[in-house]
Amino acid sequence: MKPGPEISVAVVPVAGLGTRLLPATKSQPKEMLPVAKKPVVQYVVEELGRNGVKEILFVTGRTKTSIENHFDPDHQLIRNLRESGKEDLLAELDYEQTEVKFFYTRQRLQRGLGDAVRCARRFTQNRPFVVALGDSIIGLESPTNVVSAMTRIHRESGAACVVAVETVSPQDINRYGIVEPGGDGAEFPILGLIEKPPVGSTSSRLALVGRYVFSPSIYGKLDQIQPGVGGEIQLTDAIQLLLEEGETVVGVRLPGTERRYDIGNFESYFETFVEFALRDPDLGPGLRKRLLERLVEDH
Ligand code: G1P
To answer: Integer distance in angstroms from the first to the last C-alpha of the chain?
Structure first.
């Protein structure tokens, strides 16, 4: 089989309301919450850039303009830093010089993740594309290449969809899309998917982590499905429909050295912040020391 085209387009949905993170997200996007020194979405964009993505379409919504501002080069700020002798801070703005091109479209009504992806149709046209959720960071120890692995599998296998997964604890399955695997290797065919099943209702604990590769055929399925969990158009349901219509969907496990950091709720946001702050080369060692002292005092 001839491999499919290179995949260099990604869709990053950032339109969600972030209600699980109120009041922090009342007037700012959850994707702009800082994790150590950077906003969450900057980690996602840097990950995509390292994995061969050249164009990113953000699907935005109300209160999301700060994301657009964050990725615009700010010449005034650069000039101010130079003139006031703060050259050392200029390196912090290097991400603005990325070769990735940014595009924006707006999801006018909150109809769910599947509907947000549908907003990308005119942009991606008949090209295969990556979807990366703007509230999930993958990696930590070393830069992840899971998206490159997924795009390679998509090109070589002829699958309509490739998804990244990781095992979650039994009490967390109702927070995620859960897949039924058809094998226990690093890559496997998926036999079924269900969005946010009740705790205890599935034999699998393999959860979708917010990285997907799609052929354009996903759009037809998004048009066909009815609203699902929460009354929303669910991306997971459209992938299930691909399967039911005989398409192949492949799952890729995150390697053991990688984890997904979910910034969708305070519990994992707090943990993520602390983990990333502890690994900051300048400030991490001091923070570790003070945290240990505090923990001993509290004990
Ligand atoms: C979405 C998807 C879900 C996936 C999760 C990953 O849920 O619907 O299948 O497991 O992202 O973060 P949300 O977090 O938008 O509720």
So the answer is: 62
